[in-house]
Amino acid sequence: MAETVLKHATKTALTLVAFAFTFTLLMTVVYQMTKGPIAKSEAAARIALFQQVIAHDRYDNTVLKDTINLAPSTLLGNKKPTIAHIARMNGDPVAVILEAIAHDGYSGDITLLVAVNVDGSLSGVRVIKHTETPGLGDYIDIAKSTWIKLFDDQSLIKISVANWAVKKDGGTFDYMAGATITPRAVVTAVYKALQYFEVHKTTLLPVTETANMISTEVKQHESI
Amino acid sequence: MSQFKDITENGIWKQNPGVVQLLGLCPTLAVTTTVVNGVSLGLATALVMAAANGTVSPVRKFVPNEIRLPVFILVIAALVTVIDLLIHGFAEPLHKVLGIFIPLIVVNCIVLGRVDAFAAKNPPLPAILDGFIMGIGLTLVLATLGGMREVLAKGTLFSGLDLALGESFKHVVLTVIPNYQGFLLAALPPGAFLGLAFLIAAHNWMEQRKTSKKQTPKPTNNASLKPAH
Fold first, then answer.
1. Does residue B207 sit within a domain?
2. Which of A138, A177, A196, A205 is an S-S bond match for A93, by CB 3.0 to 4.6 Å?
3. Residue A115 near residue A55 (C-beta atoms within 8 A)
4. pTM score > 0.90 for this model?
């Protein structure tokens, strides 16, 4: 009796192992087959995303490969090291693309892609991940509204520190009634990302002479 | 041939997974914010169900009863992973729309339910058909629920179709109610529960009308309606 139980159990176990082996093999084959195309389409998706925050004719380098690792920082809101991408034209840095996370949204973290020009102004901001209430707080998403474009060309110089807030809090940024927590979190996160850029400017974008000229030109332009 | 007719009738109406069996509620409720989302997930589920039933049915005699559930789960999870990888690798636009839903199919108990209840006892051809038709039955429910919620919440129909099939489909998006302020409840989870409740009620009502029509010639049958002791 004991022998048949043992025999039965062995047979059952072996069947399970055989199934596990066969299907793992199947998945391995398909994984190897699709690895290339998936990496390619993911890279294309990243580039399309970068395209939204910085026009592609402003740089000529491979932004995807031109990266710096950033340590966790409270200004960026990242708890794990992240990667920043650098856009260059003829070797000179044009802008840096940072990932910032707002922890104080209405529901869950809001992940932003913030492109900061070498002169400290914003090239563009996009929300890449959020779980805000559909129909209320989700207007920060470019798919729902153009609100996020309010940040285009803004900088710490153009808008004073006190005005980096939604209008309800006495700032410059519009918001939609009924959802102030979400835009407040986004505005703060963008502001902090700009501060991060100011603090770490030299490591992010080691300024060359041409870039220096551009930035002074812009400043002069602004003062006029 | 009548077996195939039965399978179709069961999948679409009598044993509809969405409104009768009530299996796979998690994706049903989570995904049906628009018609396009509902149909996309429904079709992906139908594909997985047909594949899972078709894989399990030929090997059903080799699977000992004690380990049938782990084996079925293994098969389903592997198939979903394979389909996910294939779509991601070779149909990128489709993956953008379906991507987040496909892993959800593993936890959809309707897939395991049909594999265990049907494919484990029937030959491959009816099994594949059963899986596919059950999936289509679910798709119909998801599409209806998605349509109801989309019209109530946003006042549109077929929004997001341009994401799935390309920019040229943008004009297909219908604005049912112009200048609509939106009804947030319909887009949130409670809206899904309420919508599904209405669909189940409608299904039950139609079934009841059908049976009561059959019973009218024999009023004596009313005795069976007396409550049991």
1. yes
2. A205
3. no
4. no
Model confidence pLDDT, tens digit, residues A175-190 = 887 788 999 999 999 9
Q: For chain A, which residues score pLDDT lower than 70?
A: 1-3, 207-224
The answer to whether B159 faces chain A, any CB pair under 8 Å, is: no
Type of residue at A126: R
Write the ipTM.
0.73
CA separation for the pair B85, B99 (Å, rounded): 10
More confident residue, B103 or A21: A21
Judge whether A83 and A69 are in contact, CB under 8 Å: yes
Q: Tell me the residue range of the domain where B44 lies.
A: 2-215
Best B36, B83, B92 member to test A by mutation, with max A CBs in 10 Å, is: B92
Q: pLDDT digits over B71-85, tens only?
A: 999 999 999 999 888
Strands (E), chain B: 156-157, 174-175
Alpha carbon distances (Å) from A129 to A100, A116, A138, B45, B198: 11, 19, 11, 26, 33
Interface mutation target, options B74, B159, B170, chain A, most CBs of A under 10 Å: B74
